[in-house]
Design goal:
two-stranded antiparallel ribbon; rod-shaped; binds phenylalanine; Phe-tRNA_ligase_II_N; 7-stranded mixed beta sheet; alpha+beta; single chain; 11 strands
Amino acid sequence: LQTEALNQVEAAEDVKALQDVRVAYLGKKGPITEVLRGMGKLSKEERPVIGQLANDIREDIANAIQEKQEKLEEVALEKQLEEETIDVTLPGRPVKVGGPHLLTSIVEEIEDLFIGMGFEIKEGPEVETDYYNFEALNLPKGHPARDMQDSFYITEELLLRTHTSPVQARTMGKKDGKEPVKMICPGKVYRRDTDDATHSHQFTQVEGLLVDKHVRMSDLKGMLDKFAKQMFGDEREIRLRPSFFPFTEPSVEMDISCKVCNGEGCSICKGTGWIEILGAGMVHPNVLEMAGYDPEEYSGFAFGMGPERIAMLKYGVDDIRHFYTNDIRFLKQYHKA
Ligand code: PHE
């Protein structure tokens, strides 16, 4: 009986089979229980011998079952571990990492430079009122200079802003005519232009405005010079040419020198060696007055530049449409590692 039981224990292939063996040999209806139960019928001399024997056998079988069970569990655990092993030496799948758009990078660079000079960053709505886009900037209805900026009108009084200059009027308007203003405003602007290499019906501008007591044209010039050198390099010169904007008086356009140097020496880029990069001027007294400032007490300067143009100059991009067609091969060239 013992040998037979031990053989079956050994043969059991899983915990369930082992359990069956336990019930068959050690259970209430098993042969050993039966022997122990029949002890009463045995003689006095036989009892301890048979009892001892039965108990020994039971213990042997129980031990064998216990041992086998541990072994089975160990095997099961090992199998599970093997199945769940991760090979950490396998090469990983590369994760595709994006990066900021070239325009975003340029705008952030411009922002950083002006934050460094103490300017605040402001925002304004892209759907603007006729009042802020034109009238508050000294461009009353019917003013011929409105034609300089062909507009997308939504209603008679609402349009997509044609420049970021309305944020000048909005920012000054909030200050109650008393506090100084020193802000820049980056944002999208819209004009009814036919798209080509240098025109786009939507592009970006960064507006700048400084209003305080005793602000002079020389302050504007000094600040723009600093900006140009930081943005394009110390070797750059700036040049201001007289121009016209209804909201500034006097008005200027700023050129930067475009000397290009390489290992073989320096050459002037194209044409005159100067490239226009922004419009600026002293804030027109009418604009100050409409925003609640006393032009006798306060003066200011304003400027507006196009980040696309700046990016095109800085990186030699030859077509403004590259910024919007979003060809990943173009954009990727400007992702910093
Ligand atoms: N708003 C002008 C434009 O879009 C640029 C400008 C801004 C000029 C501020 C002077 C002062 O062309």
